Amino acid sequence: MNLRYQIRCDLPNKENSRVAVEFLANDLKINLFAYDHEDSLEDKLDQWINLDSTVELPSPFEEVVRDSQHEHLLPEHWKTRDVGKVRQIELNWATLLVRERLLSVYNQEMEHLESTLAQMDSFDRQHFEACKAFWDKFFAFARENHLPRSITDEFKARIDVMFDVLKALRKEDKRKLEIASVEGKKNVLAKIEEAIAKIEEGKTQRNVLFNELKDIHELWKQEKLTKSDRNELKATLDAAFDKVKNSRRDEYMARNSKRIDDLNRIVGGVARALERLQRNAKYHQEALEKTDQVFQMKLHQTKLGMLEEEIAGIVKKKADIEKTLSKLKKQMAKNEPSPSSKESSENKGEGQDDKTKTKPTESVSTKESNSEPTQDVASTNTSVQESSDISQPDED
Q: What is the pTM of this model?
């Protein structure tokens, strides 16, 4: 947008005068310089309009200052010969006024951002995003309104200073976090190791252990930790929860395994007793078929009846034991960890050593065995939710 113009006007007692028009954007004023028409003045006005710094205009015979309060560019007693040009200048002036007022609003917003930043002693992601949003909005405004490069550069320099300060604050926050994370990690890890020792000792009730791990989980959320330390502790805490869950399953499996071993021994003894009774029954059956003495027949028949009754009872008992044994074996097979879950557990353990492969998950919850006959108080594991570290903005 041009800031200087010349127009032809008829002033009182001064016809066909030349009027130099100059916009003072910062002051929101217009200078009007009236000159007598001279051929030599035309060249100077053209150079002046093109912002030639070597040109100095002579003193006008009349000078008028107009501002935003005036409805028209020219005083009422000045009659222009360039009506269309004057209307265009007035339109440009109105556009300039709007632009300057908007620039004032942007400047106030910039000052507010600078004032807020001056009071900050730590990095604030929200303020960082506010600065980015402000610059995007201002740059679009500058491009749309063809702002002078000097104005755009001034705003850019101010916003760059704020970004530099924010990045310095972020760097300092990161340094403080790394220092605090060392002690926080040590504190949480010590409590996890203490809980794991109780789990391996096996003397503490599972619901008590679960409550201790829940308390450690709350401590884990509240401690100031770096992202890598938080993920590492999360994996260790999840493993401790799994260890409590698996201790219940292992205890149940061990109890069932002992019952199966006992029942197998009983079945073996019953089978041997049944075989012995069957041999005795066979002996008396054969003796009954060979003898012709009434007394001996009665004796063998009585003995055979007693043996057959005892054999029937043992066969029934053996069938019941085998049914119970089959049920226990099915339960054992159902609760036996699958190869895929074992592999997953191994990979999880490796992930604690290799931080680059550790991927944080939203939650880890324990799952109960459906075949467990009794319900433990600590039947479910509370989720270990990820806490957010201090937000880290992208580098510009």
A: 0.48
